[in-house]
Amino acid sequence: MKMSELYHDTKLEIGTHRFEAAEIIRFAERFDPQPFHMDAEAAKNTLFGGLCASGWHTCAMWMRSFVDYWTVETERLKAEGIVPPQLGPSPGFRDLAWFRPVFAGDSVTYTVTLTASRELASRPGRILNTIVCEGTNQNGLPVVRFESTVLEFA
Amino acid sequence: MRQNNGLPVLRTLKNLAGLAIVPGERRPGENVTKYSFEDFTPGRVFPLGPKHVTVEEIIEFASEFDPQPMHLDEAAGRDSILGGLAASGWHTSSMVMRMMIDSYLLNSLSEGSPGIDLMEWKRPVLAGDTLSGRTTVLEARALRSRPRVGIVKLRHEAENQRGEIVSVSENSIMFRMAKAPETSA
């Protein structure tokens, strides 16, 4: 079946991740070594006021949550006798907002909502899905939102 | 679109050649020079990279954040439409972030970014590729809501060793000003 037949306009909860200080620092060392992502003491004197995850770390963990969710979901579909949608790579995203910091110890719950699907006129057999991706912290406050795209092979 | 940003010729040449990270003007009473809002003049270009992308890095990132076969296994990558062991798009974006950090961001009065306007992953980044590129200043304006802080819109392009664009993104970053804006007479 196609994504649009299974999930249209349904907000799916795909997982929760608790951001520990050690992994925040490890990501930052590789990709975003700014003081507020690297050192709890130094972070106190910055605009964020505490050690917080790189925005890219917050996004990358959305991806991990989705892959884990999709692995289980495709098995569930197969068990129900449904051929799972064949997903491909993403051409990109837009309108990404980091609403507030993800501090060490915060737990972010991620969701995905399929909002549009269209067949690519230039590439028969390929569908471009638009998805809204969101993350909310343990206090119910939004931390990240972006509108992404993902290819599907019809 | 491009404007003369009024930089001394030597600094401009150094920037273009990517030979050195040239900090902003040294200011009276400051021991450390950092790029401030005033340094981000529309049309100014900051070089990014080079960054060599290894098999190990691709697999390490994918194992943690995007464990799909084409990011984890050479043969699976070849069999996918990406055509080889390919970095996760989030890995590519994170590497661009690191190139920005090393080029100008860490040595700046950055106040962070509210987000990303667009991110296009235009071509796969494959194991063995070497990324480089540029950040171009698109717009800069003072924030009304925060004195002595401005917001700068930037365009980031990354390309591989063949000069093929692999990612294009645009976002805004806030920077503190080195001095209070001059009031018009």
TrEMBL record, chain A:
Record-linked InterPro entries: HotDog_dom_sf, MaoC-like_dom
Classification via Pfam families: MaoC_dehydratas
Domain MaoC-like, first and last residues per copy: 21-116
Name recorded for this polypeptide: Dehydratase
Organism annotation: Metarhizobium album
Automatic annotation (TrEMBL), chain B:
Organism: Metarhizobium album
Protein name: Enoyl-CoA hydratase
Protein origin, superkingdom: Bacteria
Pfam families: MaoC_dehydratas
Domain MaoC-like: 49-157
InterPro entries referenced in this protein's UniProt entry, alphabetically: HotDog_dom_sf, MaoC-like_dom, MCH/BMMD
